[in-house]
Specification:
alpha/beta, Rossmann fold, 41% helix, globular
């Protein structure tokens, strides 16, 4: 089972990252989770959720919070540069950054690996592996757009978290799940049943 590195950065819409973790584990995936330093602060300020920084305690936290005990989960601290996943010799299926802040995006674009998330993204680009990025900002500046182009030209997939209304969503949870499932569709992972466009009858 090839693992998936899941990174959650300090951008609004952290529910997307949490739903990604939930669906990946529910589908028996092996997940290596990294929260950026800013993500801890945003979880606390936006959702009043205090996440343990200690890796072992955090694994227990997520298992209990999501009530999912399938799949494999290993958590890493944002500055753990000695982690196995920081090396190109460590094989993975893909890396997903959801949501991705513009700061993280800019540093990946310039090859500036300040933390473990950026180092792992750099590894996936240099190794030619799948790198999925869900940029979360509005409006976008020309700098943001140029950074996205640079990363796309380097082989990453830029997948803005866009909802769809043809599914007739009834709740915010419906929209979040749709966005996450479509995000992972790009690497052939069918994580949950969603209403897909079939054309007009």
């Amino acid at each position: 089972m090839s693992p998936i590195i899941l990174a959650i950065t300090g951008s609004s819409a952290l529910q997307l990252g949490e739903k990604s973790l939930e669906l990946l584990l529910a589908n028996q995936k092996e997940v290596y989770l990294i929260l950026s330093k800013g993500a801890y602060e945003v979880f606390l300020s936006e959702r009043n959720i205090k996440i343990p920084i200690d890796s072992v305690k955090q694994e227990t936290f997520w298992r209990n919070r999501l009530n999912i005990y399938t799949g494999k989960l290993k958590c890493y601290k944002w500055n753990d540069h000695s982690a196995a996943i920081a090396s190109g010799s460590f094989k993975t299926k893909a890396m997903a950054i959801i949501p991705c802040s513009m700061g993280t995006l800019g540093r990946i674009s310039s090859g500036y690996s300040l933390d473990l998330i950026e180092r792992c993204a750099d590894v996936h680009l240099k190794e030619g592996r799948e790198l999925l990025i869900a940029p979360r900002e509005s409006p976008l500046s020309l700098i943001h757009l140029r950074n996205m182009i640079a990363i796309k030209e380097s082989g990453a997939k830029i997948i803005p978290p866009m909802p769809a209304w043809y599914t007739n969503p009834e709740t915010l949870e419906d929209m979040i799940e749709f966005i996450v499932v479509r995000f992972f569709d790009t690497i052939g992972e069918d994580l949950a049943p969603i209403k897909r466009w079939k054309g007009r009858k």
